[in-house]
Amino acid sequence: MLQNSLYYIVQNEQNEYTIRFNASHPIFAGHFPEHPIVPGACMVQIAEELAETTYGHPVRFANIRNLRFNHPITPGQEVTITIRQIEDKSFNFQFSVNDTICAFFAAK
Amino acid sequence: MSKRYDIASSIPQRPPFVFIDTIEEVDEKGARTRYTISDACPLLMDGILPLSGLMENAAQTCATMGEGTVMYIGEVKQMEVTRFPKVGETVCTDARVMQEWLNILLVECTTQVNDETIATATLKIATITDNAAK
């Protein structure tokens, strides 16, 4: 679980989460030395964990589609993540910083 | 005989965020890596490597192809996992360049445990020749 170690939820409103990162987490020492950015794989893991928090049952993604990385996220940035359930076990996620969309994808 | 490749000079990621142990084969058209899942893996969830970890393993396998360049994943068009590997299992990931257009590569990745395919992914990768991202 990355929650409360790599990141913390600072606000949670109706499927919209605001999170902050722990900039001293060891992952940032390796991704990348001198210029830490949030790994795309961690965004997918965060999405899985927030879907679980939102819907109250275990979520394990087996499929993702159209995952786009538009802008890198640095550990000092506050990130807003919106989750929309599109069908039974299928979700859309969007990661943004201020009004800039950094990543989005569909997963189930 | 497989040639020995140095992981640290092949990819920009550093421990603890390294998701490949050995590079078995690599050229500009493809790569094959192996990775044994350990307790120390930073994306381990309840003893298994979830989709996120398999995605990072596929991405780093692609990154080994970028000799002299930095490779960024711009898009994961699709990824499908049929079984999550456990601690102690070794995944073997094969990445093949299917299309190349300017600096964009379309790469198909297949991950196996022994001969069982457990994950497939299609990634779009941008290659950038610069020093800023070193």
Q: Give the count of helical stretches of chain B.
A: 2
CATH architecture of chain A: Roll
- The overall pLDDT of chain B, averaged over residues, is 92
By secondary-structure content and strand pairing, the structural class of chain B works out as mainly beta
Helicity level of chain A, as a percent range? Answer: 10-25%
Q: Helical percent range of chain B?
A: 10-25%
**Largest interface, chains and sizes:** A-B, 28 and 30 residues
Widest sheet, order of strands of chain B = 1-2-4-5-6-3
Q: What's the domain count of chain B?
A: 1
Note the beta-strand portion of chain A.
Answer: 35-45%
**What summary fits the major beta sheet of chain B?**
6 strands, antiparallel
Shape of chain A: globular
Give the SSE map.
The complex is a heterodimer of chains A (108) and B (134).
Chain A: E1 7-13, E2 16-21, H1 26-30, H2 40-55, E3 63-69, E4 79-87, E5 90-97, E6 100-107
Antiparallel strand pairs in A: 1-2, 2-4, 3-6, 4-5, 5-6
Chain B: H1 7-10, E1 22-27, E2 30-36, H2 51-63, E3 70-81, E4 90-101, E5 104-113, E6 116-128
Antiparallel strand pairs in B: 1-2, 2-4, 3-6, 4-5, 5-6
Give an overview of the whole structure.
- The complex is a heterodimer of chains A (108) and B (134).
- With 108 residues, chain A is an alpha+beta fold.
- Chain A has one domain: Thiol Ester Dehydrase, Chain A (Roll), CATH 3.10.129.10.
- Chain A is built from two helices and six strands; from the N terminus they run E-E-H-H-E-E-E-E.
- Chain A has helices at residues 26-30, 40-55; strands at 7-13, 16-21, 63-69, 79-87, 90-97, 100-107.
- Chain A has a six-stranded antiparallel sheet with strand order 1-2-4-5-6-3, covered by helices on one side.
- The radius of gyration of chain A is 13 Å and the shape is globular.
- In chain A, 35% of the residues are buried.
- The mean pLDDT of chain A is 95.
- Chain B has 134 residues and is mainly beta.
- Chain B has a single domain, classed as Hotdog Thioesterase (Thiol Ester Dehydrase, Chain A).
- Chain B is built from two helices and six strands; from the N terminus they run αββαββββ.
- Chain B has helices spanning 7-10, 51-63, and strands at 22-27, 30-36, 70-81, 90-101, 104-113, 116-128.
- In chain B, strands 1-2-4-5-6-3 form a six-stranded antiparallel sheet, covered by helices on one side.
- The A-B interface holds A 1, 26-27, 29-33, 35, 39-42, 44-45, 48, 60-69, 105, 107 and B 12-18, 42-43, 45, 50-53, 55-56, 59, 72-82, 84, 133.
- Strand 3 of chain A pairs antiparallel with strand 3 of chain B, so a sheet runs across the interface.
